Amino acid sequence: MRKVGESVVAFVVPMAVFAVILSVIGLISEVVGIAQQTPVQRGIDAHTVKVTGTYAGYDDGSKFHDPTYTLSYLYEDEPYSTPLRSLPGNHSFGDQFCVEIDAEQPTNGRVCGTLGGLADARSGLRTGLLFLGTALLVLLVIWRLGHARGFRRRRTTTTQVRGLGNRQRRKPARGSRARARRAGRR
């Protein structure tokens, strides 16, 4: 039974460490997203103009980028579009949306009544923190159980024991090396 537990731990620990690393990378990405979106949303709040936009495109992103939805709209008889990380509800190409844009920078926009990319970055930050906390909790539980049960791995060395040939034997704990050497001389 002990070997099964050790093999489970040997599988779970690297997965949890991988989850921690991936979560930290994701959290850094979301913090950068919040830092980029905050001034954009403040600009929209300061110079809000409401226009009607059309859902015009979708890019499924790549391994390292989120999918983006493109809304197209007219402002002062000029065509503009803005990429968004999400759209509310079920939508299809050609659907009409109320769009709040920044009058000074018309390429910055969001669906009316939302926080746009800022809300998406905050949601990603919460999700990343949840994954990071779970992975750290798993590592903490495994570490505590290991110390509580005394699962300490000792290095094994191949040594020649008198009359028995080469055998694997546990390396003696600190302080008992001298005793082991003296016992070997007798």
Strand order of the largest sheet: 3-2-1-4-5
What structural class should be given to the helix and strand makeup?
alpha+beta
Biggest sheet overview: 5 strands, antiparallel
**Beginning-to-end CA distance, first to last residue:** 38 Å
SS strand fraction: 25-35%
What's the order of the H and E elements? HEEEEEHEEH
Global geometry? elongated
Describe this entry's structure for a reader.
This protein is α+β, with helices and mostly antiparallel strands and 186 residues long. The protein has 2 domains: 2-146, no CATH class; 156-185, no CATH class. The chain has 3 helices and 7 strands. It has helices at residues 2-46, 117-149, 177-185; strands at 48-59, 68-75, 78-84, 96-102, 109-111, 156-161, 165-170. Strands 3-2-1-4-5 form a 5-stranded antiparallel sheet. Strand 1 and strand 2 form a beta hairpin. The protein starts with a helix and ends with a helix. The mean pLDDT is 81.
